[in-house]
Design brief:
- Chain A is of the alpha/beta class.
- Chain A has helices at about 45-55, 80, 100-110, 120-135, 150-160, 180-195, 205-210, 230, 235-240, 245-254, and strands at about 5-20, 20-30, 35-40, 65-70, 70, 85-90, 165-170, 195-200, 215-220, 220-225.
- Chain A folds into 2 domains: about 1-85 and about 165-255, Rossmann fold; about 90-165, no CATH class.
- The longest helix of chain A has 16 residues, at about 180-195.
- Chain A is globular, with a radius of gyration of 18 Å.
- The termini of chain A are far apart.
- In chain A, about 45% of the residues are buried.
- Helices cover about 75% and strands about 0% of the residues of chain B.
- The radius of gyration of chain B is 20 Å and the shape is globular.
- Classes of the chains: A alpha/beta, B mainly alpha.
- The interface of A and B includes residues 81, 95, 142 and 145 of A.
């Protein structure tokens, strides 16, 4: 059914600068089907900028090439792109209190014409997404009345309802308590097993080690390391990445 | 969706009922029977009601009732749409200066002693020019788009207010100034059939696309990047919503003067009734606004012997009502 070698996300010599400051310096990598790729790096390493480029938010500004399912992100209309790649932002508050179902419907209606309202088909795919994530019981609750962890799961359900096979997640476990972090990461792992290509940024090396197939470390806009978590996540790398001493790190992990 | 459908249905029935009652209210007494007789006369060509009754009905009362509904519907609809696109529950139809612009245009027309018809046209045109100016300024501004548009709106409307103030200063205090002041208070008292017809065209042109886009307005309430990732062409969609909302606001203000609070209070009340989803919120706001302004206009023309300008009444009713809304607990779980 699928070509295993087919790279869903392919980044070639990606360079991005804010004025004279280079944020990304010629990044090249690819992510396969069913791959859970963890992106590590200190604040300001360029993780968010990289995501913005992959998602087509910065089409006019970056140099190099980003291919989503083999097609240039620059040449793909937003509506079409939304059916291939979905963005899971950090759970945030919303000015208006939508129901969880409405929030998920916004994902399901991604490929629709502007003048239409979602119909039975979209409603069904929203319900299916909520069921997959296991939060069907929340459907009629207000998005602002549920916990931060549940909100993060709703963001993931919305991305699933979009029917895209690539998920980009910006620190999905930030601001969550220990139990919610594990619940969200387990859910993400399961999605990867189902064949989704997932790129997540995280500040937690343990999440990268425990759940990801592959880890990429980003520092000063270049890829500092790339490979299996066991090979990449050495004490030396963590120390140099986050600018801490070996003693500081060991004291933390003990 | 079930509960939302019921709310919209009940509001529509209430509106029809209120409109029928409104026909019978007024110094010249008209009964419902006369209304139906006059309407059948129109079709059959007979003359079963007196010419005076028919004239008052078709030239004064019905146009005014229709206009009150249209203006209320448009101001509330525009208010709800602005609140969504600007992600700000405090946004109202005059946020970008459509009202200030219309006021300046009307003041100029009154100063030049033009006819009532031209005052409307001037107000409408100047309202659109103001918003065009806001758009140009915000395009040139750096940084966040929504913030840029709102700031440009504040600046341009303050400019328009300065123009109005200056005209009031130089206007003849015996004849022109009272007329400008009265216009600014907002009133439907001088409604003529032509006014209603004049406003109907831009109102339809603006309202229909807005209703079609109502699901998309939900997505505009998300952060821009998120909306983009959901396949929305954010700038184009927001632009379309702003143009439509402005058109119906300008059309309303140009025939009615400045009527405050409707565009803020009614969408809030509607949100309490049906929730935030614009599929239900926009129709509920529009119909609720029509009902609200129709009732207030009845008070305006029947409470005292002289008319109370409706703009004063909406503020007197709107402000305490809004405080009540704010201090109440939310109905939706």
């Amino acid at each position: 059914m699928s070509r295993l070698d087919f790279a869903r996300v392919s980044v070639d010599n990606l360079t991005f600068s804010y004025g004279k400051r280079n944020v990304l310096n010629g990044l090249t990598f690819a992510a396969r089907e069913g791959e859970l790729l963890g992106l590590l790096g200190p604040n300001g390493a360029g993780k968010t900028t990289l995501f913005n480029c992959i998602l087509g938010f910065r089409n006019k500004e970056f140099r190099g090439e980003v291919l989503i399912c083999g097609e240039s992100v620059r040449k793909t209309p937003a509506r079409e792109l939304a059916t291939r790649i979905a963005y899971v932002p950090q759970s945030h508050s919303s000015v208006f209190n939508y129901s969880v179902l409405d929030m998920t419907l916004m994902g399901a209606s991604a490929g629709m014409s502007d003048l239409r309202s979602p119909g039975a088909k979209e409603l069904e795919s929203a319900h299916r997404a909520l069921e997959t994530i296991g939060i069907k019981a929340l459907a009629q609750r207000g998005f602002m009345n549920i916990s931060g962890g549940e909100r993060q799961l709703v963001m993931i359900a919305r991305a699933l309802a979009q029917n895209a096979k690539i998920l980009i997640m910006d620190e999905p476990t930030a601001n969550l308590d220990f139990g919610n972090q594990i619940r969200v990461m387990t859910q993400i792992r399961e999605l990867a097993e189902r064949g989704y290509t997932i790129i997540i940024s995280t500040h937690n090396p343990e999440h990268a080690a425990g759940y990801c197939d592959r880890v990429m470390a980003l520092n000063h806009g270049i890829i500092a390391a790339d490979g299996k978590p066991s090979a990449v996540l050495t004490e030396e790398l963590i120390c140099s990445l986050y600018n801490i001493t070996l003693q500081q790190l060991r004291r933390n992990t003990k | 969706m079930k509960k939302q459908h019921i709310v919209v249905l009940l509001l529509s029935l209430a509106l029809i009922f209120a409109a029928l009652i409104s026909v019978t209210l007024g110094r010249f007494h008209i009964t419902l029977n006369e209304l139906f007789a006059a309407l059948t006369d129109r079709i059959t060509g007979r003359e079963s009601v007196s010419a005076t009754t028919a004239a008052i009905l078709f030239n004064v009362r019905l146009p005014r009732i229709l206009l009150a509904c249209l203006v209320g519907c448009c101001l509330s609809g525009a208010g709800a749409a602005y609140q969504g696109t600007f992600r700000n529950p405090m946004a109202s139809p005059d946020i970008l200066g459509a009202s200030s612009g219309a006021a300046a245009g009307a003041a100029i027309a009154i100063l030049l002693e033009l006819s009532g018809r031209m005052v409307t046209v001037f107000a409408f045109a100047s309202s659109l020019v103001t918003i065009a100016l806001v758009t140009l300024v915000s395009k040139a501004a750096r940084g966040e788009r929504v913030l840029g548009i709102i700031l440009a709106g504040i600046m341009v409307s303050s400019l328009a207010n300065a123009v109005t103030s200056f005209i009031k200063l130089v206007a003849d205090p015996n004849s022109i100034l009272p007329e400008i002041t009265y216009w600014l208070m907002g009133s439907l008292a001088k409604t003529k059939r032509e006014d209603t017809l004049f406003a109907l065209v831009p109102m339809t042109i603006g309202m229909v696309p807005l209703l079609l886009l109502r699901w998309r307005i939900n997505l505009l309430t998300l952060p821009d990047n998120e909306a983009k990732s959901l396949g929305v062409n954010v700038n184009a969609t927001r632009g379309a919503v702003i143009v439509c909302s402005t058109l119906i606001t300008a059309a309303s203000v140009s025939v009615s003067g400045l009527i405050g609070w409707v565009g803020l209070v009614v969408p809030h009340l509607a949100r309490k009734l049906v929730g935030s989803d614009f599929r239900a919120l926009l129709p509920t706001s529009a119909i609720g606004g029509a009902l609200f302004l129709l009732i207030v206009d009845n008070i305006s023309r029947n409470l005292l012997i002289t008319e109370i300008p409706i703009g004063i009444l909406t503020s007197v009713i709107g402000a305490p009502f809004f405080i009540w809304l704010m201090t109440r607990r939310e109905i939706t779980e």
